[in-house]
Every structure is written in C-alpha cells, then in structure tokens.
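Format notes (please read before filing issues)

Several people have asked whether sequences and structure tokens are stored in separate files. They are not. Every record keeps both together, in the order shown below: the sequence lines, then the token lines. Line labels are part of the format and must not be stripped during preprocessing.
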Amino acid sequence: MGKSLVSSLLAVMLNRMGYKTAVLDADITGPSIPRIFGIKERAGSSELGLLPVISKTGVEIMSINLLLENTSDPVIWRGPVLAGAVKQFWGETVWNNVDFMFVDMPPGTGDVPLTVFQSLPVDGIVVVTSPQELVSMIVSKAVKMAGLMNIPVIGIVENMSYFTCPSCGSEHKIFGDSHIEAVAAEHGITEIARIPIDSKLAAASDRGAIELFEGDWLNSLAEKIENM
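Then the structure lines:
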C-alpha cells in the first residue's frame, strides 16, 4: 500500500534536485499516477510513438489512464496483455533524456512485475509496505523475487507508519507495531524510511498537487538513488 505515492514522491524529489524524472505507471488495472499529479489531458502521439504528458514541474508521465476515453473505464485484461502494455509504454513512448524513471508497480509477483524485471533495465527496486504483519510476508516474497532476478533492493519504505498528534506531538502507531526493521534485517536492507499518516499529504494526492508536498521522510532514500 502506497506504491504510487512513493513513486510520485521520489520522482518529485529527484526533479527538485535538478534531474529529469519520469513515472511509468505499470499498474494497468489500478492506475493512479495521473490523478496524483493532477493530470487530466490525454497522451498524444507522433510518428515516433506515444508522447508522455508533462506534469506542472516537468515530470514525464505515461499511464493507461492517459489513453482511455473515460478514466473511470475498467481495464479488464489478462496477464499477458497487461504485460504487453507495460512493454509498449517502455519501448514506444518518446521519453526525453530521462535521468531517473520510476516504475509504479502493481501489487504481487505476477506477470507485470516479472515483465518489468525481465524487459526493462531496472537498476533497483524500492519496496513499499505498511505496519501489518501480513504485509511483511508479502514484502518478503517481493524481495526474494528481486533476488532471483538479480535486482538489488535499494531500500524499504513503510507507509502509514505512525500518526503524530497535532496537540501533544506524540507518535501513535495506528496500525500496530512496525515490523520493518526485522524485515529489512532479514534481507540485508539498510535503507529504511517511514511515511506517517499525514492529512496534508493525503490531501495533496487527492487534489493532484503532489508536487507541492513538504516532508523529509524520503530524503536519505532519494540521495541514495542519486548516488547509485
């Protein structure tokens, strides 16, 4: 939970650091990247291929929702067709000298993640989780899949990690105790980040104003990606 948020935040942060960034929305059946960035127009095309939509601050975006006539229309495709769409987004979109591309993945270890790992030049993955113990099991599966594909895990992010009381400043673990340190240690992951439950961040995502967010939760992770 929170993969689209983390993908968007990292793209915005690297963009703020002076790099050309892009987000490829590989979650074909549940695309949310255009809404997070407040993009409503449709993607165009030229003789060279699909043209990504450019966000307000210059982040290049490609998503199935930029191609649908109605963004509320469901995409009811089988796995191989979903995987083919992702390959098309990568190979047939006219990306413009992108320094860092973030691929927003669907949950699980099915056809689309396998296609991304096998068909795209992936330098590493960022695993996104939440405090529940069941989710940590799913994270272990994702990390092991990355290991089988010889793709390094850059870091792990725990979304909805805690809530800071605006009155007293104390932190409350709404979804129970975190297991992120244990999961990270089990797989030798040293980069850990936590995103709190933050009404301003949620509102920015809902309003399509993610590029205005304020927060330093992912600073260390963004710097690690920059220095890769």
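For reference, the curators noted about this record: The helical segments are 3-16, 33-37, 79-92, 111-119, 133-148, 180-186, 199-206, 219-226. The first helix runs from residue 3 to 16.
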